Amino acid sequence: MPVRPALAAALGAAALLCTAVGPVAADNSETVTVDPTGKLASDGTVTLSGTYRCTAGTGPVFVSSSVSQGDPHVHNGIGGSDAQCDGAKHTWQNSGKVDDETLKAGSAHVQATLLELRPSGIVPLPFFHAVKEQDVKLVKK
Q1: Is the terminal CB of the chain with fewer CB neighbours within 10 Å at N or C?
Q2: Running DSSP on this structure, what letter comes out for residue 84?
Q3: φ, ψ for residue 17 (rounded to 5)?
Q4: pLDDT for res 6
Q5: pLDDT tens-digit map of 79-104
Q6: Please, what is the Cα angle at 89 between 91 and 139, to 5 degrees?
C-alpha cells in the first residue's frame, strides 16, 4: 500500500477512535481553519484547504480532514498532510479520491483536525491541538 493512503487511513482511524476520548489542547493560539470552498474533480477527487497554527509538538503532527454530505454519520477521509508546530500560521491542503457517486457539488460538512502522535511507550497516543467543523461548498473543478 502506498505511503500517503496508508497515512491517511491511519490518521482517519486515529481521529475517529479518539474523538470521544482524546485530549484537546486548551491553548487558544493553536487553531485550524477550513476554507469555505472545496474542489470536486470529475474523478471523485476532493481537495480541501485552510490554515493552521500550533506550538511545540513532541511527535509528528498532521492536518487530517474529512467531508460528509447528506448522511452526517458517513464521513469520507480526505487525506492528511504534515504540519509544523513552530507558532507560525501555515496553509494546508489535502486531496483524496472518493467514489464519484458519493459526493456531489453543493453543500457539505468538513472536519479538519490538527493531530499529534505523541510518543508514549510502544504505541504513540493522539493529542488534538485543534479541531474545526464547518459547512463548505463543493464546486466542480
Answers
A1: N
A2: -
A3: -65, -35
A4: 47
A5: 999 999 999 999 999 999 987 677 89
A6: 30
Per-residue cell: 87: 507558532
- Residue indicated by cell numbers 474523538: 19
> Which CA distances in Å does 41 have to 20, 56, 101, 141?
32, 36, 12, 5
Q: Tell me the C-alpha distance between 72 and 61, whole Å.
A: 26
CA-CA distance, 40 to 125, in Å (whole number)?
A: 33
Residues 5-47 pLDDT 10s: 544 444 454 444 444 444 454 457 899 999 999 999 988 899 9
Instruction: Give the pairing of strands 76-82 and 61-68.
Output: antiparallel
Strand locations in the chain (E) = 31-32, 37-40, 45-53, 61-68, 76-82, 90-97, 106-118, 125-140
CA nearest neighbour of 65 among 46, 78, 50 = 78
